[in-house]
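Protocol step 4 of 5: obtain the predicted structure for the target chain.
Materials: sequence only (see below). No template structures provided, no constraints applied. The aim of this step is simply to have a reference model before the mutagenesis design in step 5. Sequence pasted as it appears in the construct record:
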Amino acid sequence: MAIKDRLPSTDALLDSLPLPRDFLTRLGVLAGHTTRQISIESVGVTGGNLSDVEINKVNLGNASIGTITIENTEATLKQSSAFLSGVKSIVELSFKLKWEINLGWIGHWGDTNDIGSMDIPVDLGNIDIPSLDNIDLSIPTVNIPAVVANMAPINNLKLGNFSLSGADIEKLTLPSAGLSLTGLGVGDVTVSSLAVPGVNSKALTVAQAKPELNVVLPGATVNNLSIPETSIPSIASSPFSTRAIASDKSLTVNLGLLKITLSVTPTVFLNVAAMTIKDAKLSASLGSVKIKDISLPVSVHGLSATAFEANGLSVNQIKF
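Step 4 output (structure tokens):
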């Protein structure tokens, strides 16, 4: 006798359990329904329309910019004046002595020694420069790394009508937690395909949409940017200091067997309490501005459309 013929039938198993058969039947149907899901192989929409699309707010967050590169900048400053207040300077003179002794075949000796420095303080007070005209500035390349920009939100964005085509959703399961039916028993149901001529809705509303990842843009380039001549009434600076090192000056005494060279290196330290440039006219041209590796978080709040229409809706392989 085959093994399957030795196994008890379903009816025999139900009769052998110490529970009413009607209760076991209802329990089996309920258990099956609580774990059921509708599986749809694909949903396709050939075309559709969204009417009067509006977005209340688009939050852009803080944009992270990898590098800003400005190339071939030419600027001209015209018809301006400058006033420097509280100017103080220190002139530092550093001395070095180089000596050489040459005794021919007996020997040759020499060395260079620092012999100290001398500071000369000078209080220049206020300096008035009545004319700064036709000052040309040429900057080949400026690289600004790791820029963070606080992007303002976009409010009340009106996008008008949208047309949709070729939309496909694959491997759709609903609901994700399972489907429960009360008072209705359904066995396995399979629909190979379902076609709907069209669907429409009077309104579409999305409260918030926020992608998990930042929006990453590869970059942007603006070429041949020209800034026309612009009048600047006043430019004021905070206190600043600078240093300038002049070339060495030397005096040499050669006595034959003995050669001595005294050199001095002037260094000027300049401290300025404030600098003001008035009535300046500035024009500039930029060869290119390159922005690379832009990353920013985006969230959309309050997306709405007055009507939604989809044409040619097709559903394939529905299993329940």
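Step 4 remarks: The mean pLDDT is 78. The helical segments are 3-6, 10-16, 21-34.
Proceed to step 5.
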